Amino acid sequence: MLELHGVSRSFGDRLVLDDVSFTVGRGRLTGFVGGNGAGKTTTMRIILGVLAPHAGTVTLDGAPLAGAARSRFGYMPEERGLYPKMQLVEHLTYLARLHGFDKAGAASRAHALVEQLGLAERAKDPVESLSLGNQQRAQVAAALVHDPEVLVLDEPFSGLDPMAVDVVQGVLAERAAQGVPVLFSSHQLDVVERLCDDLVIIAGGRVRAAGGREELRAQHGTARFEIVADGDVAWLRDVPGVLVDELAAATAVFRADDDVAQQVLRTALARGPVHAFTPLRPSLAEIFRDVVIDAPEPDLQEAAR
Ligand SMILES: Nc1ncnc2c1ncn2[C@@H]1O[C@H](COP(=O)(O)OP(=O)(O)OP(=O)(O)O)[C@@H](O)[C@H]1O
């Protein structure tokens, strides 16, 4: 397990990370979500050891990270950095050589990755001639070239079409299934919602929520239910503790706590057949609004003084 504990960092007198703590479990795809300037890249650079924290620790399975341990990390930085003139497969072979693979091993690794990321037909193309989406896939391949023990990816899904998202997600999920902690940042809440097991939501340099996707859905947002009955369900309006959001003849969406919802179901069944009764979990966008937008912005600069 990769763990950040109490990580803080300032630039000049600007505090940009404030007591950031979270874990990235083995076998879990962890999405790191936050708006522009929230502190995602800074956090990732600290994990990688590119930037030093001013306070706090980063550990892997409880052990502090030395340089050698980090050489087993795979990182896809925000600023994409492949040599534009180099052929894709040649480039990946070169990177594998830098990581200590022998010539044959490096070439076979490069070919396997090109294949896995759906770039086989582009293998001999110079990197600069690839479409943006394919360059992005190439960057993911570059982060994976040495079979890393931990994967940290800054916006790996940005600019990808839905098919490419699935390809990259498949590759990351496979690494996660092998026990690799995988942390990726994203602005695309719908993508994160679909792909990740765990979530870390950061805003203004502070972690606002972290945990399993389902756990967070259960904790945040209002519990809502949809009911589809046989006859009119307008009677719902008169049930104490029920707030009807939508009503159309035999279908309604309402808010209520779990006990009241169960009572509604019993009442509905006593009245006639119920075709569907579904808890509607809040979407990630709703949770994000709940924990980020609705929460008062902490005055980090004040806290830094
Ligand atoms: N080297 C630096 N010097 C000064 N300020 C910096 C530096 N790097 C980052 N910052 C500031 O730290 C804050 C967090 O930036 P960071 O890049 O970590 O955010 P982010 O969540 O990755 O944002 P984005 O989604 O826009 O990439 C920002 O206000 C940024 O301006």
TrEMBL record:
SMART domains: AAA
Domain called ABC transporter: residue spans: 2-229
Record-linked SUPFAM superfamilies: P-loop containing nucleoside triphosphate hydrolases (SSF52540)
Places the protein is found: Cell membrane
Membrane protein topology class: Peripheral membrane protein
Taxonomic superkingdom: Bacteria
Keywords linked to the UniProt accession: Antibiotic resistance, ATP-binding, Nucleotide-binding, Transport
One of the record's GO molecular function terms: ATP binding
Coiled coil: none
InterPro entries assigned to the protein according to its UniProt record, in alphabetical order: AAA+_ATPase, ABC_transporter-like_ATP-bd, ABC_transporter-like_CS, ABC_transporter_ATP-binding, DrrA1/2-like_C, P-loop_NTPase
Main location as per UniProt: membrane
Nucleotide-binding recorded as keyword: yes
Annotated family: Belongs to the ABC transporter superfamily.
PANTHER family per UniProt: ABC TRANSPORTER ATP-BINDING PROTEIN, ABC TRANSPORTER ATP-BINDING PROTEIN NATA
Listed name of the protein: ABC-2 type transport system ATP-binding protein
The species this protein was found in: Cellulomonas iranensis
Native organism taxonomy: Bacteria, Bacillati, Actinomycetota, Actinomycetes, Micrococcales
